[in-house]
Specification:
heterodimer; A: about 90 residues; alpha+beta; Mth169, Chain: A; 3 helices; 3 strands; flat; B: about 220 residues; alpha/beta; 9-stranded mixed β-sheet; two-stranded antiparallel ribbon
Chain lengths: ~90, ~220
């Protein structure tokens, strides 16, 4: 099984109201010094077969077609050994 | 004319849109997102709501509903297509219209009687209006901020593809106060405000929205 991670972020020039809302909450919680927050999305895809350049190209097509809207978002695809949930589990969280 | 109104899972305003179509003098035909054909309709409305729960991005999943293959093909043949609010988001996600709609810059859901200026009147949805006519139409959205890159915005302005513009204040952060746009041909129009909620004196701010549903006839006679 191959595992791919797709990170999607709003393009730098696109306003990110959700990130702004998060940023606005931080000082109220006592976290000072954070100058900006941008909020994106992370997708973890489990795909049949071994990780190959062809499969990577396929996942990039998935990302550009559905997971991200290239008009307002950038995306980046990479392979990943472990999911966020697995990392947390191993850390005993 | 037979005007199809598509219902997606999570559509809210499909019934109001069908009622507005009828008040506009047409036969409303209910279409379902899972339909593969358009039942012989002459025009299509994609209504407002929260199709597929706005999951992923508003309109992103609806774009791949079976009916959208037929809608995209019909739009390419010149069939009039009007997307209202969530329907506008679906049209942008389908690349039938340029740009995209993002969360309101002030982060709040907005529900107001909105002043607008109708700027493009040679479309099958707006020919009942006079160019520059000012109207009041209900606006209700959480993700109504129209954005596109500068080159696209310049092209929209330069080629007269801006259909409607917000007046008396920008309600959602839309760039250049854009409330609605069209494709080059003019048959595909997307609008963030809801003309289907402004077709009867009893239930809205007036009847300024009715023109979107009476324009079709006037185009046919033109």
């Amino acid at each position: 099984m191959a595992r791919y991670v797709v990170d999607v972020m709003p393009k730098p020039e696109i306003l990110d109201p959700q990130g702004k809302a998060v940023h606005g909450a931080l000082p109220r919680l006592g976290f000072t010094g954070v100058v900006d927050v941008r909020q994106g999305k992370r997708f973890e895809l489990e795909v049949e077969g071994e990780a190959t350049p062809e499969l990577l190209a396929e996942v990039e097509r998935i990302a550009g077609t559905l997971l991200a809207n290239p008009v307002i978002e950038d995306f980046e695809v990479h392979t990943e050994e472990r999911t966020v949930a697995e990392v947390a589990q191993e850390a005993g969280r | 004319m037979k005007v199809g109104v598509v219902t997606f899972p999570g559509s809210l305003d499909d019934v109001d849109a069908r009622r507005a179509v009828t008040l506009g003098g047409h036969q409303a035909v209910a279409l379902w997102h899972g339909d593969e054909d358009l039942r012989g309709v002459d025009a299509i409305v994609l209504p407002g709501g929260f199709s597929y729960g706005d999951y992923l991005r508003a309109g992103a999943i609806s774009r791949f509903a079976p009916v959208m293959t037929a809608v995209v093909e019909a739009a390419g043949r010149g069939v009039p297509v009007l997307g209202i609010c969530n329907g506008f988001q679906v049209l942008c996600e389908s690349h039938l219209l340029p740009g995209a709609l993002i969360r309101n810059d002030h982060r709040k859901f907005n529900c107001v009687d909105q002043r607008l200026r109708i700027e493009r009147t040679d479309t099958p949805w707006t020919s009942s209006y006079d160019e520059g006519q000012e109207v009041t139409i209900v606006l209700k959205n959480g993700e109504g901020g129209f954005v596109a890159d500068e080159a696209t915005l310049d092209r929209l302005e330069g080629e007269g593809l801006v259909v409607a513009r917000y007046l008396d204040g920008n309600p959602n952060g839309s760039l250049r106060d854009i409330a609605g746009v069209s494709n080059d041909r003019g048959n595909v129009v997307g609008l963030m405000p809801h003309p289907e909620h402004a077709v009867e004196e009893l239930t809205g701010p007036g009847t300024d929205g009715l023109g979107f549903f009476t324009s079709l006839v006037e185009t046919a006679f033109a």
